[in-house]
Write a structure and sequence with these properties.
Elements lengths: L2 H24 L2 H21 L8 E7 L4 H12 L3 E6 L3 H9 L5 E5 L3 H6 L7 E4 L4 H29 L3 H6 L18 H35 L13 H30 L8 H22 L8 H5 L3 H8 L11 H8 L2 H15 L7 H36 L1
Parallel strand pairs: 1-2, 1-3
Antiparallel strand pairs: 3-4
Length: 403
């Protein structure tokens, strides 16, 4: 048999495995749950949970110890902010703390008695703010609103001081010498869903793929134990490489509709960022799906039955979320966690997809992440071949013992 005949035979075997794997997928309700129901439902559920994306009208208590026109003006400007709502004026901090303990307010603004006096003397005035830190999204909203309020008050006081100094022409120009303006690249709405969902959907693709593949692997090992080391639903005569590639391609092809739905239609349905080229991020996602499929086949070595994926794989979802850098920047992680994150396809998938989807990067501009995904595809393909050989060899030994 010459080289081309071997290649033709290998492709034929891979095609047989591909067709057999697709048949197993569509006839397994558990696998369909992971391959179809989970990718279809989870992005919608997560996005609905995080809507509305921003927190508005957070109730706060005010303790005004100054009781002057200046302090009342400050509170009025705070009340005008779309992010803050004055829930109550309290005579002292004890009453304000009681409201916070009852979760009627999530912040306390305390204006000291010398607030107006310090402004009149051209000295620095202070306003104290206490925030409930049970939810960082509230704290972020408070910081942004108070920063804008501070800049507005500074601009107004500076104009008054310039005018009182006789520099009317400078006061008429208004504003600060240097204006501050925030531009949130990739998240113009400043919303939490716009920030987190593009990364979450990539992890959903990876985890649902790994869960489905390991579930099928656990089912295969159950069948082998019941049939003396033979899986009657496995393609006979196929090489290990053809077996591994056939299974991976079947899962990847089956995932294409769900991938298009998640990456293309979910952002449009919920008005999330989607500035990148669909061609770029669909090409980018191919090695993510392949590497996830090979990773699942590698993890089959830990699967003894169909229930094993729920014990071995499900708990890793939270771990992979942290390793991806969505909740904590990867450069701030220790070397151990940083390199462990490099071994997870979803980490590179999150990094590259967010750049393409939210910041309109091209495929060459995410070349490092793209190369890393193909590298992981190659590595996990080799480990999947090793696991497949080991499982087959182990069951051949079982057949010898049964003889």
């Amino acid at each position: 048999m010459n080289f081309f005949e071997k290649i033709s035979l290998w492709v034929s075997d891979m095609g047989r495995v591909f067709r057999n794997e697709l048949k197993l997928i569509v006839h397994d309700v558990g696998v369909l749950l992971f391959f179809v129901a989970l990718p279809l439902a989870y992005p919608v559920v997560y996005t609905l949970i995080y809507n509305p994306e921003v927190v508005r009208k957070l109730p706060i208590a005010v303790v005004d110890n100054s009781r002057t026109a200046e302090s009342r003006s400050f509170v009025q400007k705070a009340s005008a902010s779309p992010s803050l709502e004055i829930y109550a004026y309290c005579p002292n901090m004890a009453d304000a703390k009681e409201l916070m303990a009852e979760h009627k307010v999530f912040g306390i603004m305390q204006i000291p008695g010398d607030y107006a006096k310090n402004i009149g003397r051209s000295e620095q005035a202070h306003v104290e703010f206490y925030s409930d830190m049970s939810l960082l999204l509230r704290y972020r909203t408070f910081v942004a609103a108070l920063t804008d309020l501070q800049l507005e008050i500074i601009s107004e006081i500076t104009g008054e001081r310039i005018s009182s100094a006789g520099l009317a022409s400078l006061a008429a120009s208004g504003g600060l010498p240097i204006e501050s303006e925030s531009n949130f690249l990739g998240d113009t709405e400043q919303g939490f869903a716009s920030f987190v969902i593009p990364g979450i959907v990539i992890l959903i693709l990876q985890q649902s793929m790994v869960l489905g593949v390991t579930l099928m692997g656990g089912s295969s090992r159950e069948r082998r134990r019941r049939n003396g080391g033979i899986d009657p639903m496995e393609v006979k005569g196929a090489s290990t490489l053809a077996m591994v590639w056939g299974k991976a391609l079947a899962c990847t092809v089956f995932y294409i509709p769900c991938t298009i739905y998640i990456l293309r239609f979910i952002p449009e349905m919920f008005n999330l960022p989607h500035y990148g080229s669909p061609v770029d991020y669909l090409l980018f996602i191919v090695p993510l799906l392949l590497s996830s499929a090979f990773l699942g086949q590698t993890l089959v070595i830990f699967m003894r039955d169909r229930e094993s994926p729920f014990i071995v794989v499900v708990f890793t979802s939270v771990v992979f979320l942290f390793l991806s850098g969505l909740t904590w920047p990867r450069y701030a992680m220790s070397k151990l966690w940083y390199w462990l994150g490099n071994c997870v396809p979803g980490t590179w998938g999150v990094e590259g997809f967010i750049r393409i989807n939210s910041n309109a990067a091209s495929l060459p501009e995410v070349g490092t992440a793209y190369f890393a995904l193909w590298l992981l595809t190659a590595v996990y393909m080799l480990t999947a071949c090793w696991v497949t050989l080991k499982i087959r060899a182990g069951h051949h030994d079982m057949k010898q013992l049964l003889k």
